[in-house]
């Protein structure tokens, strides 16, 4: 049986804007992935723990408050501590282009800014997750 | 509005005309003549005629400006008397920097202040709380105690400006600080003019900065209504907000329906708590979004005004005309701003602002072109403010009241939005009211469905977003964005520690104990909160006391 890609859509930080996170969660689901959404206002610790419990392939982070440089790398570090360094971590939200190199250097594999087509994010995940069932 | 004979002749003529139109090829446009709909999914006809408003009764449905049902505006003279309040939502980083920005905006002709707080403040957390790391000063100014508010309003005469504060779950605490500050400056609270957003219901359904569960939250709201009706009579005690639900993706119809349903819930709760409807209803204010579809938006504002008048008069039997008047603030739609070709946002904002003005708004915030990527720079904010000034002083649209009234399309659309919104309100009534409809997820699900649908329309190209799915160009990354220093967290920790060292600890403890007892009982919370913040109890300390009594709300994570 083909392995379904498991995605955790997560909202680190304190902002409550999850329109984008929910739209993406639904798009991933309709693309045949298994999706878990954390809900808003999760700490990096909570997100990493859910990722471990749910044994996900992808953690998709969304932050619109401007705290991404603080919070996204923390999630990556915690995943590595939990032995989940192979999880694909991507991010999106209100993120200035000039922050992207910093985030990529800290383990966020790709950053999707405002206006990114859903298909771009879906395709990226499909091509970058390859795991044996 | 028209006699039967006229309508009959028109029908006959239109049938002939329609045959002719049907023979015209639909052209290369992506939409045919018969396939247009607003963002609310309302089909739009090719042309509107008296037939579409044949059932309208002018005096019953529109009336004169300043008269029931206020469709044409809540004041008789509208912008001829005074333009709307130009109120740019601002606040970032430190109280010192925000104070400078407010003084700058006032010096540029802005007529009211609108305070943006950072997320820790909005969630009742002090700036030194572990969860505040990375968030301090990011989306607004960080305020943790009266000491911060003293600096934030330094040199700003509280009795001469109106101040709007976007604060919800901890609204009572920030209002208490504002009252305490005024008293210290010798200004009587009855001279204060402003607004607290204080709309917790839309926090559960769309905005996310809730703290306590619905029941105690509604008690706090009632306490604010009751306290202000006696002590701060010119204060707008709530700004019932559709803005954020629209940002979360709902349609224009849903925005009207869900906002008014929330309004009904607040009025219901206050009446159940023993307040007389006319003692508080005149201080209720509203907050709407101005989205892209200009004429649908104008109709939306007019429909909302008429519906609220009916609700207050017929459902709640208000006697005071002021209780029936829907007064509202508008902000242009942040969700329509694009990070691609950001200067195009100036044009979007202009059209949206025009819709708000043609719809009769009382105050307006125009977004800045760079807000899809960061807080706005001073240059961008100035252009946004100038946009309002150009509409107000150059365009001529303010010369006469409700200038689009009588347009067949506008009136038909106003009627249609009202009709569709009533259906939702009836449904929400059947579910037991807005609080229940939020608790069982109905409103959230409706918003999510609409938002996903909207996104799919963009994906398929059915909905054109200039610069995003059509007319793209290769662009260099945006430069000169506003940055907030992440070291602020450490700075604020130091400031808070110093403030706490300098205050009378025993007095703080006594005030917090008193607050806890009040929260456990049923007396009005406001005096105890004012007492506590006046002793420099922090926002976090006050909210922690209330958390310990009221508990915390946890939403589900469906999508």
Would you spell out the secondary-structure blueprint of this structure?
The complex is a heterodimer of chains A (133) and B (559).
Chain A: E1 6-10, H1 19-30, E2 34-37, H2 44-54, E3 58-63, H3 68-81, E4 88-93, H4 100-105, E5 110-112, H5 118-128
Parallel strand pairs in A: 1-2, 1-3, 3-4, 4-5
Chain B: H1 4-23, H2 58-62, H3 78-81, E1 85-86, E2 89-90, H4 95-107, E3 113-116, H5 119-122, H6 146-152, E4 162-166, H7 171-184, E5 193-196, H8 201-207, H9 214-231, E6 235-236, E7 238-241, H10 243-247, H11 252-272, H12 277-280, E8 284-290, H13 294-315, H14 321-324, E9 328-332, H15 344-358, E10 363-365, H16 378-393, H17 408-430, H18 434-439, H19 442-460, H20 488-502, H21 505-520, H22 526-534, H23 539-550
Parallel strand pairs in B: 1-10, 2-3, 3-4, 4-5, 5-6, 7-8, 8-9, 9-10
Helix pairs in contact in B: 4-6, 7-22, 11-13, 11-17, 13-15, 13-17, 15-16, 21-22, 21-23
Compact summary:
The complex is a heterodimer of chains A (about 130) and B (about 550). Chain A is of the alpha/beta class and about 130 residues long.
Description of the molecule:
The complex is a heterodimer of chains A (133) and B (559). Chain A is of the alpha/beta class and 133 residues long. Chain A has a single domain (6-124), classed as Cobalamin-binding domain (Rossmann fold). Chain A is built from 5 helices and 5 strands, in the order E-H-E-H-E-H-E-H-E-H. Chain A has helices at residues 19-30, 44-54, 68-81, 100-105, 118-128; strands at residues 6-10, 34-37, 58-63, 88-93, 110-112. In chain A, strands 2-1-3-4-5 form a 5-stranded parallel sheet, sandwiched between helices. In chain A, helix 2 (44-54) crosses helix 3. The termini of chain A are close together. Chain B has 559 residues and is α/β, with parallel strands linked by helices. Chain B has 2 domains: 58-87 and 197-460, Alpha-Beta Barrel (TIM Barrel), CATH 3.20.20; 88-196 and 513-559, no CATH class. In chain B, 50% of the residues lie in helices and 7% in strands. Chain B has 23 helices and 10 strands. In chain B, the strands form 2 sheets. Chain B has a 5-stranded parallel sheet. Chain B has a 5-stranded parallel sheet with strand order 2-3-4-5-6, with helices on one face. In chain B, strand 2 (89-90), helix 4 (95-107) and strand 3 form a beta-alpha-beta unit. Chain B is globular. The two termini of chain B are 46 Å apart. The interface between A and B is large, with 38 and 47 residues.
């Amino acid at each position: 049986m083909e392995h379904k890609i498991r995605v955790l859509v997560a909202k680190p930080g304190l902002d409550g804007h999850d329109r984008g996170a929910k739209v993406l969660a639904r798009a991933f689901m309709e693309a045949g992935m298994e999706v878990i959404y954390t809900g808003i206002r999760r700490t990096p610790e909570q997100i990493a723990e859910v990722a471990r419990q749910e044994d996900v392939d992808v953690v998709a982070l969304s932050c619109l408050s401007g705290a991404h440089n603080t919070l996204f790398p923390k999630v990556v570090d915690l995943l590595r501590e939990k032995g989940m360094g192979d999880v694909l971590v991507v991010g999106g939200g209100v993120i200035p282009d000039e922050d992207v190199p910093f985030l990529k250097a800290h383990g966020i594999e790709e950053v999707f800014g405002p206006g990114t087509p859903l298909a771009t994010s879906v395709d990226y995940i499909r091509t970058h997750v390859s795991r044996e069932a | 509005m028209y006699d039967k004979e006229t309508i009959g002749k028109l029908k006959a003529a239109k049938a002939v005309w329609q045959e002719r139109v049907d023979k015209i090829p639909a052209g290369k446009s992506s939409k045919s003549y018969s396939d247009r709909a607003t963002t609310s999914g309302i089909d739009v006809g090719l042309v509107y005629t008296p037939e579409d408003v044949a059932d309208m009764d002018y005096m019953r449905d529109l009336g004169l400006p300043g008269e029931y049902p206020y469709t044409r505006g809540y004041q008789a003279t509208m912008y001829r008397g005074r333009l709307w309040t130009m109120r740019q939502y601002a606040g970032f980083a430190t109280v010192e920097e925000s104070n400078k920005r407010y003084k700058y905006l006032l010096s540029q002709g802005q007529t009211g202040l609108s305070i943006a707080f950072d997320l820790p403040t909005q969630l009742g957390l002090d700036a030194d709380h572990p969860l505040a790391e990375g968030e301090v000063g990011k989306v607004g100014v960080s305020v943790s105690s009266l000491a911060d508010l003293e600096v934030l309003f330094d040199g700003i005469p509280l009795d001469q400006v109106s101040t709007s504060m976007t604060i919800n779950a901890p609204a009572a605490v920030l209002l208490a600080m504002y009252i305490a500050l005024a008293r210290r400056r010798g200004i009587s609270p009855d001279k204060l003019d402003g607004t607290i957003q204080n709309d917790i219901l839309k926090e559960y359904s769309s905005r996310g900065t809730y703290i306590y569960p619905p029941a105690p939250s509604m008690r706090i709201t009632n306490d604010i209504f009751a306290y202000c009706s006696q002590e701060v009579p010119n204060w707008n005690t709530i700004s019932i907000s559709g803005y954020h639900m629209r940002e979360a993706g709902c349609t224009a119809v849903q925005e009207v329906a869900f906002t008014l349903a929330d309004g009904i819930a607040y009025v219901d709760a206050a009446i159940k708590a023993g307040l007389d409807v006319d003692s508080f209803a005149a201080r209720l204010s509203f907050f709407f979004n101005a989205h892209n579809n200009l004429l649908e938006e104008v109709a939306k504002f007019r429909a909302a005004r008429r519906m609220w008048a009916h609700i207050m008069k017929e459902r709640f039997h208000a006697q005071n005309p002021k209780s029936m008047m829907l007064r509202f603030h508008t902000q242009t739609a942040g969700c329509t701003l694009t990070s691609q070709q950001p200067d195009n946002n100036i044009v979007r904002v202009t059209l949206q602002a025009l819709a708000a003005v043609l719809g009769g708004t009382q105050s307006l915030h125009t977004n800045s072109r760079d807000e899809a990527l960061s807080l706005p720079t001073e240059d961008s904010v100035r252009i946004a403010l100038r946009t309002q000034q150009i509409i107000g002083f150059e365009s001529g649209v303010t010369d006469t009241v409700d200038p689009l009234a009588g347009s067949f399309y506008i009136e038909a659309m106003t009627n249609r939005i009202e009709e569709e919104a009533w259906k939702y309100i009836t449904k929400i009534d059947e579910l037991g009211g807005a609080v229940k409809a939020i608790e069982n997820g109905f409103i959230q699900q409706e918003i999510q469905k609409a938002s996903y649908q909207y996104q799919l329309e963009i994906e398929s190209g059915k909905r054109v977003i200039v610069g995003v799915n059509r007319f793209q160009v290769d662009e260099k990354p945006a430069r000169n964005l506003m940055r907030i220093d992440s070291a602020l967290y450490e700075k604020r920790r130091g400031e808070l520690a110093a403030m706490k060292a300098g205050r009378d600890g025993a007095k703080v403890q006594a005030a917090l104990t008193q607050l806890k007892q009040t929260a456990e009982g049923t007396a009005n919370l406001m005096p105890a909160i004012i007492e506590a913040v006046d002793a420099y109890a922090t926002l976090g300390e006050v909210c922690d006391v209330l958390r310990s009594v009221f508990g915390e709300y946890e939403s589900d994570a469906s999508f």
